[in-house]
UniProtKB/TrEMBL annotation:
Lineage: Bacteria, Pseudomonadati, Pseudomonadota, Betaproteobacteria, Burkholderiales
Name of one Pfam family that matches: HDOD
Protein name, per record: Diguanylate phosphodiesterase
Organism: Paraburkholderia monticola
Domain of life where this protein originates: Bacteria
Gene3D superfamilies: EAL domain, Hypothetical protein af1432
UniProt domain HDOD: residue ranges: 238-428
SUPFAM superfamilies in the record: EAL domain-like, HD-domain/PDEase-like
Amino acid sequence: MTTIAIETLSDSGASGDASLTASFARQPILNRDGMLCGYELKVRAPDLPLADADHATSQADTPAHTDTLTGRAPTPVQRVARAIVRGLLQGDVRGALTEHPAYVDVSRELLLDDAILRLPAERFMLELPASLEVDDALIARVVYLHSRRYRFALDDVTQPNETFAKLLPYAEVVKIDVVRAPRALLPKLASVLKSAGKLLLALGVDAQADFEMAHELGFDRFQGYYFARAQSSATRRVSAPRHALLNLLQLLAGDPTVAQLEAELKLNPVLVMHLMKLANSSGLAVGHKVTTLRDAINATGTDRIARWTQLLLYADGRKIALEDDPLLQLAATRARFMELAIERMPEAGRDEADAAFLTGVFSFVDAVFGGSLEKTLNILTLSRPIQAAILHREGTLGLLLSTVEALECGAWGHIAALSERLAPLTLEEVAQMGLAAAAWAGVADRSAQGLERIED
């Protein structure tokens, strides 16, 4: 894997123990216009060997950044911190971020360790947890990192306390849990922090009502899956008529001829435009410019047209880049994860992979159409196992769907339990596939395996 080499430190300093591996999941952060503007990386720290874990307790308060000067071997706690830094610099993490900044929780040990200087300051927002022990040494370290252009966010704020007061001067962003914070306190807290020049991020926004409340209070960023709920569909413009996409999907499900596809597409000029762009994209170029609809269908192929149409259902009609469209990114990532994961199952073939992709891509189609999810799935004529997986989480497809939902929340304990039922799939592989799927979704507009860039 490719590693971003920002700063070279000695083996006794930043490189740590290569046998320790951290796992990561991403959660989207949206701006006031509903577009992606960052991701929080949910971190699962590596497990230490038992003997090292026992030793770590007694070393937890050692100032970790001094060992590069003394040459002492890193403590177990330092080794974990450095494994997290090493993981954050891997190419698969970079690909999953799709050029967006990463918000990542940092412990006291990680803040005090010089390994943190390997992280490019412009790409990471360091989140200071509410449980952080704040003393003179930590404040001095935050001031030093701030002088190196590192940026900080106060995480999981529900109401001001002593830790909040001590760290606020150094924070650029304040993440407020709008569900757990006292509702009566929010207007005053938001007003004071905005007056102080802080960016406000609403945390835990999974309902449209919470988004609307935070938006009205002037919050700048929003973290949660409200945008993937049925009630938010009215706020999105459509990139093509939904009924036209449904008709095309129904036709594609029946193995149509080129003539049948051509006739259906001609009824919808917007779809013709998108397909012509797709056929002439760099990933699908056939050596000459495609100028007829029939040639576009032949150059693209029905399988790719089907996947393109499935994801086009989720596209926002505004002229925004694919990698900035949160609903399309979520649909594409989930579908690709399902496809990658099913391939690890015994005796899984192409048909199973196709079914897995369909399960992922249509698992929240109600966010587009509203109404009954079951009714929409029936219209799409999806198979019984796919419908059972989406509606009731049944079968292997249902287990995989539950797994990717847990991954989207960084629910590592739940992922571990599900992985035991999906052997030989492991938690580490689940996390790795999640990053690979996110990277695939982010570059799908430039890949022969994915989509064109979707815009009017």
